[in-house]
Amino acid sequence: MNRNETKETYPFLWLDDLVERALNPDRSDLGLLSSDFFQAVSERLPVELDEISTTAKTQAFSLYNGEQLKAIAGHYDQAVRLLLQQAASNLDKYPAKGILRTTGQLIFSGLAGLAQNLERRYGTHAPAPAAQVRPFSLFKILLKLSGDQIGILVRGAFDAGLIDTVSKRAAFQALTPFLSTPHRDGLSHESLRSNSGRPERRDVDKVIEALGVLSKIVREYR
User: Which superkingdom, per the lineage (predicted)?
Assistant: First the structure.
């Protein structure tokens, strides 16, 4: 079986190799990794995550048997959770700053977002054994802004250099899984990024107003 055939039966092939081997400090010399490697990871990661989501949808759509759907959902859930565990373990061993940690956080956030999407879409079908491997619950921060306004805030923070990631896309990928609004619990990083590129004036004004209030509060700190 060649690599392409293997990936058709196991869509996590690239991610598995990346998290379990290439970026695992217990199995690789991370000091040998180049900046080109990290750039390639940041560019390929969203593609791989989208492919996994698409493959899951395709497989689920073709199934009419509830037991088969449970099995497929359980396989995906368990694969993501085990990768999350290893990604978290890797992060614990990375330096506090630098491109290695930024990339590790990007991967962890991407996997967390994928886990959340799979649970939201197939959660009622996941069997108990898959749930048992979950190492944590994904805690979210509620921001009293709309999704479009959060997108503007993230874009502005990145452009101002306050968020240090390899790309603007990476910034949205890393942050979005942990954010929610008063009206939406699940946000799309692609939607936030896309809409921030053509913001409505009322949303820009709302963000400016919120930052103005924040600025006044911070000025009072002593």
Answer: Bacteria
Cα torsion for 8, 11, 16, 22, to the nearest 10°? 70
Q: 119 and 55: one domain?
A: yes
Torsion of CA 92, 95, 100, 105, to 10 degrees: 40
At 98, list the tokens.
């630098």
The Cα-based distances of 187 to 29, 102, 125, 147 in angstroms read 36, 21, 22, 7
Considering 134, 167, 185, which residue would you say is the last residue of a domain? 134
d(CA 35, CA 57): 34
Count of structural domains within the chain? 2
Q: Read off the tokens for 178.
A: 């942990």
pLDDT tens digit sequence for 29-50: 999 999 999 999 999 999 999 9
* Residue 30 amino acid letter: L
pTM of the shown model = 0.62
Write the pLDDT tens digit of every residue in 68-87.
777 788 888 888 989 999 99
**47 neighbors 14 (Cβ within 8 angstroms):** no
Q: Which two tokens stand for residue 164?
A: 């240090």
